[in-house]
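Look over this today:
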Amino acid sequence: FWHTRKLFFKKTHERPATMSKVSLEDIQKLRSMTSMGMLDCKKALEQAEGDMEKAIELLRKKGASIAAKRGDNQTAQGYVHAYIHPGASIGVMIELNCETDFVARNEDFKKAAQDICMHIAAMKPLYLSPEEVDPAFLEKEKKFATEKLIEEGKKPEFVEKIVEGKMQKLYSEICLLEQTFVKDDKLSIKEVISGLIGKVGENVKIKRFARFEIGA
């Protein structure tokens, strides 16, 4: 009887075999790379068995999952941030929205606004998202690309697909949310926002931005 109880007690208090011990140094390193909470980083590293790249991917998926669940939540609060680039020849303003005033005052939220402003200063996006691109401008670009492909002798059945690919590339160049984040080329700005949503636990949206440059 006592032998059976000891076995039962041991089994019910053992750590799952899939969980491995992770060092505080690794947890802090992952936190500095992702800005996620210490507990989230610890869990991700344990699940990834210490693999840093896998842990980062797990945290990104978590952020995307939370973003999908909270995507329809109203974002009536927020923060307006202004950034002046060194030399004072470029300035950026952004309105970053969230669900509550509490999150709007959060330091991670404010830091994200600063990072995105710096990105806008460097990458010069023209639009927020593909949905906001001027239809006349888009039609002109499609027509130009189509005519050029036909001149090059591309088969008609391939032209449409190639043009669509060119439009996606165009979006990644001129639309803020589709651009590659200047501080991490593995992330788009859309993914940066998803990560922020996972971190603060609220829906977050960029409502608008403006970029000013002397002589532009």
Q: What stands out?
A: The chain has a mean pLDDT of 84.
